[in-house]
Here is the input.
Amino acid sequence: MPNETSFDIAVVGGGIVGTATALALAGQGLTVGVLEAEETLAAHQSGHNSGVIHSGLYYKPGSQKARLCVTGAADLYRFCAEEGVACQRTGKLVVATREEELPALAELERRGQDNGLAGLVRLDAAEIREREPHAAGIAALHVPQAGIADYPGVTRAYARKLEALGGRVVTGARVRAVARSSGAGGRTRTVVETTRGRFDCALLVNCAGLQADRVARLCGLVPDLKVVPFRGEYYELSPERRELVRGLIYPVPDPRFPFLGVHLTRTVDGRVEAGPNAVLALKREGYRWRDISLRDLAETAGWPGFWRMLGRTWRTAAREVWRSAVRRVFVADLKKLVPELQDGDLVKGGSGVRAQALDRAGRLVDDFYIEAIEGSLHVLNAPSPAATASLAIGRHIAGLAVEALG
Here is the structure.
């Protein structure tokens, strides 16, 4: 009987990427354990997002984001159908409300075509209302591949399949220390000290999301980037006004940033979410303004890239804070997409925190980013569309892990 605290691979992080990676590794006959700091899976980014299945429209052709998103979305639709996880292919409208947004809309259409998205349709104002009767704009792009899913449910389904293959999921196992130690036969092993005890493995795979750079440093890797948390806040449409939105309605995003702007999203349980914005979180798991960590703030403020980024983007940052603080500003942005919306139609919703890697030069790392060191592999940037692409990313990371094992 195998040792329950000894694995070929220990995956740190029980979010959607960590469990998908573990599932891919277990499928290759390796013994795998998932070590999750919280008491439940999908406790942070995987359980606090808009639930959208992205199409691959936004991402630079040839990038990992583009390739893995397109493949991963198709995989995810199949997985949800096979496993009975709530999922719906709704389609999405990306709506231009001003003339100056039309070139960016055309660029999105070009990117989508280059990324292999079939069936993209350019709409005029009348055609927008045929698909979304309460939406308004001068032009839009209809993206049929987009949809919605229950991502916490997807994560739990990955974990169930992992355990059926002999893998183990350990919750409440926050990593405290990592060391290298000689094992049987003189082979060096990685030893992981957690709040649930000690585990050893031939290779550690770090999918820790908001804590990924810290876990990397525990392993002896000093990445030239910092995870900076950005909070996205949501409102919801009141039940009697949910008919204003049939599917997904998005603005044309600002191409300088990886955020997509406040949008309207129907969920798998019939609600309609409005948001999110993007403000600096004062704690890595800070879902409210009053959630503050002096350690997290000091690390962000001590990173030179943060001040370089702020020097270039302070006007946008100030606008996001203003939109967070003043409800009518949030509502005004939503009314550009659905003019009938009124302040009274919205109720306060939840929020999520995005782990965004920021390099020393102050650039928001745009693509997925993975680094390796002896005994460990580190996923240091896996923002949206990581949930959509989780099965494809998991296979990619698993391939790198098997290669690292030799």
